[in-house]
Every structure is written in structure tokens, then in C-alpha cells.
Amino acid sequence: MKNKDPDVKNKFHWPWLEEKVNGVAIQTWCRKLEQPGVAFCIVCCQKIMYDSNGKKVLLRHAVDKNQDSRYRLLKENTTIPDASAEVSRTSFVDRVEELRVLVYINYGIMKKIDQNSTKTSATRGSLI
Q1: Residue 55 lies in a domain
Q2: What is the radius of gyration, based on Cα positions, of the chain?
Q3: What is the DSSP letter of 81?
Q4: Domain residues for 122?
């Protein structure tokens, strides 16, 4: 993406994304938007206006306690897309088939549980 910040006081510099704050690269959570002077945090879904203070705004956002807790929570529960992340070697078709197998197995287990509970209810009814 070309630099689209013609009228911005502090133009965006791509090397900013490679810098680490508390061991986390800015590129992990920050995306440059087409809009001049604006970046986007994928962790807190918030626009970051860097046009007046440049990189300082990104660094300030990175050390914000809410950003840190949201990032840790997101990292623990999901895969955060990252430029340095390893690409999955499993094809989409293979992943879909794996899900189908899991759904089929789960359906079979649930069906057996349902059948057992129906038999148990019928047996209880005949005893009464």
C-alpha cells in the first residue's frame, strides 16, 4: 500500500509496525487504513488517529491497560492474524471434512444419549 497521507502532519511509516512494545509487535494488532492519518486496532476495534502525534499515539495505545488485557484475552481464546504467523498447511477442504466428521461423531453420541434417556423413561413408566 502506498503512503496515502498527503495532507497529514505525521505521515505513517511502515517500520513502526515492526517495533515491539512489551514483547508484542505493533503489527500484531495495528492495521493502516486507507483514510489519511488513521490506523485501526483489531483488538479493541478502534480507530487510532496518528496524524497529529505520529508513532507516539500507537505506542501510547500499546501500553494502555485496557489494550493489554483485551490483547491477552483475545490471544488466549483465538488466533490473532499476524504477518509473522505460520500459515496453516491444512487445506480448507480438509478442515471442512474434519468438521463434518466431528459433527457426525457428536450427532451419534447425542443420538445414543437421547435413545438411552428415552428407554430409561419408558422403563420407569412401566414400573409405576
Answers
A1: yes
A2: 25
A3: P
A4: 88-128
Question: Within its chain, how far is the Cα of 90 from the centroid?
Answer: 19
Number of domains the chain contains: 2
Angle at the Cα of 27 from the Cα atoms of 24 and 30, rounded to 5 degrees: 105
- Name the helix (H) or strand (E) containing 52: none
31 and 64 in a single domain? The answer is yes
**Which single residue is written with the C-alpha cell 444419549?**
113
pTM, to two decimals: 0.56
For residue 100 the three cell numbers come to 463434518
Within the chain, where are the H helices? 55-63, 65-77, 92-127
Give yes or no: residues 22 and 57 share one domain. yes
The candidate with the shortest Cα–Cα distance to 40, out of 24, 17, 22, is 17
- What's the CA gap between 128 and 106, in Å, rounded? 33
Instruction: With H, G, I as helix, E, B as strand and everything else as coil, classify residue 35.
Output: coil
How far is 52 from 46, CA to CA, in rounded Å? 17
What is the tens place of the pLDDT at every residue in 35-93? 899 999 988 888 999 988 999 999 999 998 888 888 888 777 776 665 445 555 667 77
Crossing angle of the two packed helices 55-63 and 65-77, in degrees rounded to 10: 70
